[in-house]
User: Which sequence fits this backbone?
């Protein structure tokens, strides 16, 4: 699982940086690297970033569990 967690984190960072560039500069790095937003490889990256975000929802329960432990001790 640690490997999958690392891959998800890396993809979320890539996605976050891409959205930062879109918001600040109207520049889609993923699209420019992989041949446009409609290019198959760009769509795969977008899908993987989205799946990583869904996968990472599991970390919320871990954070909440750790916070609950700290407040009870």
Assistant:
């Amino acid at each position: 699982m640690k490997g999958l967690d690392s891959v998800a984190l890396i993809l979320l960072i890539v996605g976050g940086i891409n959205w930062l560039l879109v918001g600040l500069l109207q520049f889609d790095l993923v699209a420019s690297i992989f041949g446009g937003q409609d290019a198959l490889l760009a769509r795969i990256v977008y899908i993987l970033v989205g799946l990583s975000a869904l996968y990472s929802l599991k970390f919320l329960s871990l954070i909440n569990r750790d916070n609950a432990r700290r407040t009870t001790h």
